[in-house]
């Protein structure tokens, strides 16, 4: 039977959601699709190549949630970063899937980064610096999403087991205040954006 890449990607995402990234292999996907592994390797030469297609699919919804490019640049980066973070957390191990993606295949992630470069360049960063800043920004969101997806279900028990009293107390205070993953991400993203604002060329301040 012919292999349709979009259908194969949807099946692979379902396998990741069900059992996690570590259990996904090209051979397992082939078995799920009812084809021989060599036929699938024609389309996905390696697991990394397969993950690039998955990254493209799971980031795509974030592009629909991006604000207009004429939005004030810090607001754009805040809203866009929140949209990307949500898209990555929308699938089990989604952030790990996207780490190290080849943007020639994971085009949705590449388009996200391209728009961030555009916004930063419009804000006054020289183009070379805009690419560096966009890299810092996107890598932060990806890395933070990886960390957020590793938090244990029983957070209270985990806090109690932390042998560092100041961190444990601070985390208890956050938990008591009702802090969520999204709250913590927003706070951390604000720190990154403050750094970018401080680095913007003085002539456009």
Number of E-state strands: 0
Q: What fold name goes in the CATH topology slot of the domain at 67-204?
A: Tetracycline Repressor, domain 2
Ranges where pLDDT stays below 50 over 5 or more residues in a row are none
- Strand % is under 5%
CATH architecture call of the domain at 67-204: Orthogonal Bundle
- Average pLDDT score: 93
CATH H level, superfamily name of the domain at 67-204: Tetracycline Repressor, domain 2
Question: Which features characterize this protein?
Answer:
205 residues; mainly alpha; Tetracycline Repressor, domain 2; 0% strand; flat; Repressor_TetR_C; Homeodomain-like_sf; transcription regulation
Summarize the model shown:
The protein is an all-alpha fold and 205 residues long. The chain has helices at 5-19, 26-33, 37-41, 47-64, 73-89, 94-98, 107-122, 127-148, 155-161, 165-176, 181-199. Helices cover 70% and strands 0% of the residues.
């Amino acid at each position: 039977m012919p292999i349709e890449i979009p259908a194969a990607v949807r099946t692979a995402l379902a396998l990741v959601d069900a059992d996690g990234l570590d259990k996904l292999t090209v051979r397992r996907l082939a078995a799920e699709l009812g084809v021989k592994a060599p036929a699938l390797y024609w389309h996905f030469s390696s697991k990394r190549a397969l993950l690039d297609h998955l990254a493209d699919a799971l980031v795509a919804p974030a592009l629909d949630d991006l604000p207009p490019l004429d939005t004030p640049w810090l607001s754009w980066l805040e809203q866009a970063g929140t949209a990307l973070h949500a898209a990555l957390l929308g699938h089990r191990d989604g952030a790990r899937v996207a780490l190290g993606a080849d943007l020639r295949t994971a085009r949705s992630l590449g388009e996200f980064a391209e728009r961030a470069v555009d916004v930063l360049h419009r804000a006054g960063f020289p183009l070379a610096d805009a690419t560096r800043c966009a890299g810092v920004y996107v890598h932060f969101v990806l890395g933070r999403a990886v960390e957020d997806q590793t938090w244990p279900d029983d957070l209270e028990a985990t806090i109690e087991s932390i042998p560092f009293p100041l961190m444990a107390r601070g985390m208890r205070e956050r938990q008591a205040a009702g802090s969520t993953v999204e709250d913590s991400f927003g706070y951390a993203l604000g720190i990154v954006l403050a750094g970018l604002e401080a680095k913007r060329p003085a002539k456009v301040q």
